[in-house]
């Protein structure tokens, strides 16, 4: 492949559609958190903490927080990226933890895509054990994966087909994250690899 638009079979969500949807999500979050985000957390920090999961969600999170009109802190986690074959194992390892305290704070986890749901299921379990005031998920995409773990998402950008999708943060072998749109990768790019 050329790692560019030629490798894309079909564009699912173009730049404008993503922009519009992320703006709506940000407005909704602003409304929902308006009251609880006003009071301060510990040490004068914002009460609202937006956590994203490296690396795929970094682009979505960057755009989303700019549509949330409230004081907030940004933090990042990195988890072990398992290969396709290990995806169903449910074994997720924390490579980098958030540096902020979350006890008593309102945590919003920003993810790019919910596929098997195992990444989020595990993260929510870990973060919940630290006693946040609340915890919710904003995912840009939720795949129609019939074997998806049961994960409650307060904010879902788009439902999408169970295809190999890339762009706007989503990768194949670390390529395509910088495409400004989300599209289906041509099967010949990943078949036989
Ligand atoms: C991808 C994606 C989600 C996760 C979703 O991350 O960004 O974090 O998989 O899959 P799941 O619902 O089946 O757990 P990946 O592990 O590929 O790492 P990356 O974000 O660095 O691409
Ligand atoms: Mn990811
Ligand atoms: Mg990936």
UniProtKB/TrEMBL annotation:
It catalyses: GMP + diphosphate = guanine + 5-phospho-alpha-D-ribose 1-diphosphate; IMP + diphosphate = hypoxanthine + 5-phospho-alpha-D-ribose 1-diphosphate. Belongs to the purine/pyrimidine phosphoribosyltransferase family. Coiled coil: none annotated. SUPFAM superfamilies: PRTase-like. Its cofactor is Mg(2+). Pathway: Purine metabolism; GMP biosynthesis via salvage pathway; GMP from guanine: step 1/1; Purine metabolism; IMP biosynthesis via salvage pathway; IMP from hypoxanthine: step 1/1. Its main location: cytoplasm. Keywords: Cytoplasm, Glycosyltransferase, Magnesium, Metal-binding, Nucleotide-binding, Purine salvage, Transferase. GO terms for cellular component: cytosol. Its EC number is 2.4.2.8. This is Hypoxanthine phosphoribosyltransferase. Residues 14-172 form the Phosphoribosyltransferase domain. The lineage of its organism: Bacteria, Bacillati, Actinomycetota, Coriobacteriia, Eggerthellales. The keyword Phosphoprotein does not apply. InterPro entries: HGPRT (IPR050408), Hxn_phspho_trans (IPR005904), PRTase-like (IPR029057), PRTase_dom (IPR000836). One of its GO terms (molecular function) is magnesium ion binding. It comes from Slackia piriformis YIT 12062. The keyword Repeat does not apply. It comes from the Bacteria. GO terms for biological process: GMP salvage; guanine salvage; hypoxanthine metabolic process; IMP salvage; purine ribonucleoside salvage. It is found in: Cytoplasm.
């Amino acid at each position: 492949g050329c790692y560019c638009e030629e490798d894309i079979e079909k564009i699912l969500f173009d730049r404008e559609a993503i922009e519009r949807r992320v703006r709506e999500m940000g407005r909704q979050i602003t409304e929902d958190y308006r009251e609880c985000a006003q009071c301060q957390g510990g040490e004068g920090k914002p009460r609202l903490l937006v956590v994203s999961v490296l690396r795929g969600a970094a682009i979505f999170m960057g755009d989303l927080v700019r549509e949330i009109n409230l004081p907030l802190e940004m933090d990042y986690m990195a988890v072990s990226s398992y290969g396709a074959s290990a995806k169903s194992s449910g074994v997720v390892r924390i490579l980098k933890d958030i540096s902020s305290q979350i006890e008593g704070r309102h945590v919003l986890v920003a993810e790019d895509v919910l596929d098997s749901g195992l990444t989020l299921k595990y993260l929510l379990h870990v973060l919940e054990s630290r006693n946040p005031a609340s915890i919710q998920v904003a995912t840009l995409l939720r795949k129609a994966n019939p074997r998806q773990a049961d994960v409650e998402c307060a904010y879902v950008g788009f439902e999408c087909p169970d295809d190999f999708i890339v762009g706007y943060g989503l990768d194949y072998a670390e390529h395509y994250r910088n495409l400004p749109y989300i599209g289906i990768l041509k099967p010949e790019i990943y078949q036989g690899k």
